[in-house]
Amino acid sequence: MAIIKPNNNTLSSITALPSGMISAPGLSTGKVLQVVSATDSSERSTSSSSWSDVVSASITPSATSSKILIVCGLAGLRRDSGNAYIGARVTDGASFTKKFGHAMIYNGSSGALRIGSANASFLHSANTTSSKTYTVQFNSAAANDTIVVGDNGDSNSTITLMEIAGW
Prior knowledge:
Helices cover 0% and strands 51% of the residues. By secondary structure, the chain is an all-beta fold. The strands form three sheets. Strands 3, 4, 6, 9, 11 and 12 form a six-stranded antiparallel beta sheet that branches. Strand 1 and strand 2 (11-14) form a beta hairpin. It starts with a strand and ends with a strand.
C-alpha cells in the first residue's frame, strides 16, 4: 500500500504489499530463481483411458518455501472418428495432479476433428529441496476411440517449470 504525502502528493514509501503481489523493491520473495523447459513434437495416440506421458521436466527447488510455476500445453490434438474426447493433466506422480482438459474435441458427431492446443498454468507449493519431475499426460477420456497428440509431428507440446522464491 502506498503512502501519499499530503503536501506534494508524491510516493514516499511502500509499507505493505497488496494481496497477490509477488515482488517489490528490496524483497526477495517472488523472484524467479530458475527455469527449466522441455518440448516434444512426437505424434502419440491412444484409445485407452489410462494416462499416457507426453513431455516431462525436472526441477530441484533451492528452498522448501519456493513455489513451482508450471506452464504446460498439449499441441496438435486430433480425434479420427467416433465420439472420442481428450483428457489432459499435469502431475508429479505423487502429491500434485491437475487436469486442464476434459471432453476436449467432443462434439457428438462421428467425423474427424482437430483442435490446436490445450494450455494451462499452475502454482505448486512443492515443499521440498529434492528433485521434482512434472509430466504432461493425455488419455482417451471415454476410452472409445483413438486420440492423437502431436498431429503429424508438426506440433510442440511443452512444459516449463519456474522456481519462484517463497513468501
